[in-house]
Amino acid sequence: MDKKTLRPVIKYLTDAQIEEIHEGSLELLENTGIKVELEAGLKVLDEAGAKVDHQAGRAWIPRELVAHCLETMPREFAYAARNPEKDCFMKPGGRLYSRTAGSPDFIIDIDTDEWRPVLDADVKELYTLMDALDGISIPTSAFAQDWPKFGRDILMLREMFNHTDKHLHLRTDTVKTFPHMLEMAAIVAGGKEQLKERPVVSLLEGHVSPLRYIDVMVNALLLCGEYGIPLEICCMPMAGSTGPVTMVGNLQLLNTEFLAGVVISQSAHPGAPLVYAPRPMLMDLKTGFSLAGSIDGEMAAVAGVQMAHFYNVPVSVHGQWSDSVLDDGQSTLEHAYTALMGAFSGANILVGAGSLQETLSISHAQLVIDDEINKICFRALEGFTVDKERLAVDAIARVGPGSNFLADEHTARFCRGERYTPALFYRGSIEGWEEGGRKMFRDRAKEKAKAILEEHKPNPLPEDTAKALDEYVSDAFKSLGIDWKLS
Amino acid sequence: MSNTLEQMQKDLYNGQVDEVRAATQKALDEGTPAQEILSDGLIAGMDEVGKDFKAGDLFIPEVLMSAKAMHAGLDVLRPLLAESDAPALSKIVIGTMAGDLHDIGKNLVGMMLEGAGFEIIDLGTSVSPEKFVETVRTEGAAMLGMSALLTTTMPAMKTTIEALTEAGLRDHVKVIVGGAPVTAGFAKEIGADAYAPDAASAVDTARSLIA
Fold first, then answer.
1. pLDDT of B82 over the 80 cut
2. Residue B4 CA to chain centroid, in angstroms?
3. What is the mean pLDDT of chain A?
4. Per-residue DSSP letters for B183-210?
5. Distance from chain centroid for Cα A366
6. A151-170 tens-digit pLDDT
7. Mean predicted confidence (pLDDT) in B91-100
8. Are A79 and A259 in contact (CB under 8 A)?
């Protein structure tokens, strides 16, 4: 008898509905086609057998090519970490990891609660926190606004390497800076070949919905393939504006866009590691704002994970998404349900820890709260061990009717390891809470963040690597004409 | 301290009932006085347990296993202690209020108090004020612990305290109350000596009131 319980998985789409969406995507790619705004991408598609209009920057992709490219996609690969103990393994239906949300520009000041730009000192603190919190598997970029606008992605990667030995998930701004970031990753990995074997960085990049492959995205698809680093294809149409207003229509579009990305990537570099990243958004029909933390969007994301499973590829999903402007009850509720649904979708990566206002802002407290939410999700997926001793027939018989289990040996024997105790929760009496200073949830999260920053010392880069990295960055800045002194 | 007592403390901490019982006999055989085994072995061991429980390192079921082990040792010593002029354990009467059948919290407090070295007279559930008063008198109890889970049974705590006063016993017995809806304010209002929000503080409070 199997002792572990089942992994719970939420499904919305029937097999026939999945086929219908797939078929719709093939039709659209063949008949409507996509816009490709980088000649190198058009060339790749042309050579692979797509119908291409170089002048108009359009490509029409035949279904045979889609089928072929879906074949060459790898099913399993690692998000390798500088510290191999922190490697994350991607495979469909595999275990769940978590990562923070990409590139917030604003932060809720931990002392004043003021909403203000992310600054250099914040970036250092945030990565120290992401390094220390073990419910965060994969730190993701955050840019400081007191850095130069051009070249900030390079600076960010340097800070990340200096503050954590976990796998690093990147954002890039330009086709000019990204190659330098890959070279930096190669320095830390020990060479370009070593980086291919153990990609210590990965990237998320997106096209522009509907169906527009901008230069940065095409460049990312080509370069990530060349360097062998995993790429999350971010499909983010907004229901009602850049996508159809219906949830499944939005899903239809994002699935089509994902397949187009797969074709560009695999045509250029067969076997390049890709992750499906369905991020269905909604336009607020009253204000025109984009909405992230909606139950509807999360349902569509879960259906997106089903599409990824249909294609048998790794997938990342909304974990913590919120529209709240503050790390408060709303953000924590939104994050809890998006995270649990994301966890139960069967995805590989739960994305969004720390984020607020979609991914515009971040806060120390939210990061600590989301670390807790992640751990609760991990626990929820773990299920139970079912065996004779744990089923406790003997213990129940021993205690008998009307007594209790308090002092039974079975209770003492299994009282550890059967349950997860959230470190941030207060579960005591009202008197104890009052004596403790009437601390609210977010006060306790802030306290924990401060304690970590006080104590935690990240594992630094080896001295010679750090030196080589700084030399490379200085040279790169010179060649890019960026005037910035490394601190 | 002898090796036997040192080992006894460790076994007690780990909740090893049989080992503690055997070690108690062994210590006696080695000529250690019963009173010394009690204070330097069993009670000293339980003090460690109490410390780590308070720090959150030990869980309630583990404390209860240690308490069981302590009692296994105590059972060996009891006849010898009775012969000596060692002071008897303080008695605590406990029970839930008339009309209240919820007793798991009361049971837990009882076990924890027993583990801390008190003698517990558990009257069970739905105990009338008269029964409480009578038992306090006949047992010569140092403390009365009353528990309620229902707001409807809380007034009986006040009635019981009044009955103790009428019987002329109130000055001889400390009264401690607890249970989910009970508060420190309520305890004060009805004239109880103390309120404990959980099992661990019930033990601390009992110690400070009557030990």
1. no
2. 26
3. 96
4. -HHHHHHTT-SEE-SSHHHHHHHHHHHH
5. 16
6. 999 999 999 999 999 999 99
7. 94
8. no
Nearest to A177 by CA among A149, A154, A206, A160: A154
With CB atoms and an 8 Å threshold, state whether A429 touches B108. no
Task: Report d(CA B187, CA B195) in Å as an integer.
Answer: 6
Q: Do B62 and A406 touch (CB under 8 A)?
A: no
> What confidence score (pLDDT) does residue B83 get?
75
pLDDT at A96 over 80: yes
- Is residue A210 reached through a cis peptide bond, with omega within 30 degrees of 0 on the bond before it? yes
Residue found by looking up tokens 């229509």 in the block: A249
- A357-376 pLDDT, tens digit each: 999 999 999 999 999 999 99
Tokens of A98: 């978590």
What is the per-residue pLDDT for B89?
A: 77
Among A265-279, A370-384, A418-432, A442-456, which stretch is predicted with the lowest mean pLDDT? A418-432
CB A37 within 8 A of CB A213: yes
Are the C-beta atoms of residues A104 and A127 closer than 8 Å to each other?
A: no
The CATH architecture that domain B91-210 belongs to is 3-Layer(aba) Sandwich (3.40)
Tens-digit pLDDT profile for residues A207-247: 999 999 999 999 999 999 999 999 999 999 999 999 999 99
Chain B residues in contact with A433 by the CB 8 A cut-off are: none
- A429 in contact with chain B, both atoms CB, cutoff 8 A: yes
Phi and psi, residue A409, nearest 5°: -65, -30
Domain edges within chain B: 3-84, 91-210
Distance CA A215, CA A444 (A): 44
Q: Return the residue of A nearest to B198 by Cα.
A: A429
Measuring CA to CA, which residue among A113, A133, A476 is closest to residue A327? A113
Chain A residue with Cα closest to B15: A412
- Tokens 């089942």 — which residue? A6
Query: A418 CB near a chain B CB, below 8 Å?
Result: no
Q: Which helix (H) or strand (E) holds A20?
A: helix A15-31
Place of tokens 């409480």: B132
Question: Quick one: A111 exposed, middle or buried, by C-beta within 10 A (0-12, 13-18, 19+)?
Answer: exposed
What CATH superfamily classification does B3-84 receive?
Methionine synthase domain (1.10.1240.10)
Q: What is the pTM of this model?
A: 0.90
